[in-house]
């Protein structure tokens, strides 16, 4: 049987490797168990819920006030537009921008504007004027909300992304292909226009990509404008034949396209977010295990050196 310093060193080395392997296995077991452990309450997430709730309440209150006042506003705009055409359009655009910035839904205002412009300028010209006014106003309002979100909530959302891997994964999924996903979001009627602009401002999406993708509001805007213009012409000319049938068809097409876009965008975001989240968690897991497995060995080297 071999004895002496050489044998002691070999025995110490074997003991060190066994102990290091045992500790690494224990760390892996604890790390795996930690995935099933109940989550620790995160104060940041509580703040997130409060902010979302406040925004929803503001949107609902604004909608109630808006729907009560839209009839009076439309009458005033019809009178102003009839007397001073250009001034009426500018006033409408200013009101539209402010309405979007304060989270008031713009669909009814879009159709009301198209109706009054068709009433004043005629169907074709009124529809074109309404489309240009709504499209430009909505695009400007989107940029304002994006910048507000970036400079008021950017830091807070960055902290949230660092603390919540799933939030970071969703943000990374949107950042990887921002134009495609934002375009699909624009086509979805389920996602509030103003809230989407504000939230994307706090994300890592570049402003250039956001501005380009916001052009995708054109199809939906045209559809709502057409429905409103048909309504305005029917009221002024008391005609309800082909145009009203076409309006119903446009409504149906918008509903179908919106529903498909909603399902598609939710599916894409979910798939990409899940993929990136799994990749990120796997990388963090490997890094953490590597660090844990290296630390005991360094301790053993210092102890036996």
TrEMBL record:
Keywords: Cell membrane, Membrane, Transmembrane, Transmembrane helix. Residues 104-229 form the VTT domain. The keyword Ubl conjugation does not apply. Residues 1-32 have a biased composition (Basic and acidic residues). The chain crosses the membrane at residues 47-67, 88-121, 127-157, 178-200, 249-271. It is found in: Cell membrane. This is VTT domain-containing protein. It comes from Chromera velia CCMP2878.
